[in-house]
Design brief:
The complex is a heterodimer. Chain A is mainly alpha-helical. In chain A, 84% of the residues lie in helices and 4% in strands. In chain A, strand 1 and strand 2 form a beta hairpin. The longest helix of chain A has 29 residues. Classes of the chains: A mainly alpha, B mainly alpha. Chains A and B meet through helix 1, helix 2, strand 2, helix 3 and helix 4 of A and helix 1, helix 2, helix 3, helix 4 and helix 5 of B.
């Protein structure tokens, strides 16, 4: 990969971040309460999408594999109010175990 | 160590191990060590870095690599309005702070109850994550094929699981639940018909029905 494309990506990614922090938040401040309400809901929508993409998508296609079992275990751990570290570790353990089982 | 700082560290350790995979892949694709370091230090958006290197690794053009990296970086703009109130000082300083506005830092900040704790969670996660992401990338580039596939340890599922824990506080009230549900459905619908990164941008439209629900229930307004 050329240095030029790396610096273009660095500039572009930083541009998006700055646009959000300086630009979009100014728009939000000017647009009043309704826009503020919507920005407060952004994490709910985006994190849900992030979880789905990271759990179900491989190479831009929906795939059901060991991750589903692991994340299922993670949901149970969250529901049982397990500490954050336990949520992460139980997910990893179940995913690894299911993956290992299906390989053998 | 306070709870949110410890959570930030746990998340960063998992992500730091994933960074080793980035180092391995980037090295195998022919990127030099300085190139890998510049990407992890300044691009600092894991999904974009993986996408760019994977496109090159698969024989794609630089143009395609930059394009897919930018589609994945675009969502960070949407996090700006969520965390910008945590940044103080001059426009220049807040602009520099923007470099650290990514999935993990926004998640850790947005799940805290007050702004002071949110800012603390944001910056501690930023420090842990940036350090471990860079150490991991360089480590991966050096160790190369000695690094086991992160899938072996189920690390690829650690990230979504951590985000489930970080999503829960956003589901306490009905508007958040509606925004989550609609965002999730939109993402699933968008996956088969759009390139990576776009499903996340489409999912952001989920805030509109969430907002409509909130408007109809003024009694249950946000805290």
């Amino acid at each position: 990969m050329s240095w030029l494309s790396i610096w273009i990506m660095v500039a572009g990614a930083f541009g998006f971040k700055v646009l959000g922090v300086l630009g979009l938040s100014r728009v939000a401040a000017g647009a009043g309460r309704s826009f503020h309400t919507m920005t407060a809901l952004i994490p709910a929508s985006l994190f849900t999408a992030l979880i789905i993409v990271q759990t179900l998508v491989t190479d831009e296609e929906l795939v059901l594999d060991a991750r589903v079992w692991g994340v299922g275990a993670g949901i149970v751990a969250v529901w049982r109010r397990a500490p954050f570290t336990m949520v992460v570790l139980s997910t990893m353990a179940v995913t690894a175990l299911v993956r290992w089982q299906t390989l053998v | 160590m306070s709870e949110h700082r410890r959570e930030g560290l746990v998340l960063s350790i998992a992500v730091g191990i994933v960074a080793m995979t980035f180092g391995v892949l980037a090295d195998a694709t022919g990127l030099s060590l300085p190139q890998i370091m510049v990407m992890s230090a300044f691009l600092f958006t894991g999904a974009s870095q993986f996408a760019a290197v994977s496109v090159i690794d698969g024989g794609g053009s630089s143009f395609a690599a930059v394009g897919s990296a930018m589609l994945l970086a675009a969502r960070n703009a949407l996090y700006g309005p969520v965390v910008s109130r945590l940044f103080r000082g001059s426009t220049f300083r807040r602009g520099l702070s923007a470099q650290f506005v990514i999935d993990e830092t926004t998640a850790m900040a947005s799940t805290q109850d007050d702004d002071a704790t949110a800012a603390d969670a944001f910056w501690w996660t930023a420090i842990w994550l940036w350090s471990l992401w860079n150490i991991g990338s360089v480590g991966g580039a050096f160790l190369g094929s000695f690094v086991a596939e992160p899938e072996t340890y189920g690390l690829d599922a650690a990230f979504p699981a951590a985000f489930i824990a970080l999503l829960v506080p956003h589901l306490r009230e009905r508007p958040g639940r509606v925004a989550s549900l609609v965002g999730g459905v939109l993402a699933i619908a968008a996956v088969p018909i759009s390139p990576a990164g776009v499903p996340l941008l489409v999912a952001a439209l989920g805030v509109v029905p969430g907002w409509l629900v909130q408007r109809r229930q003024p009694a249950e307004s946000a805290p």
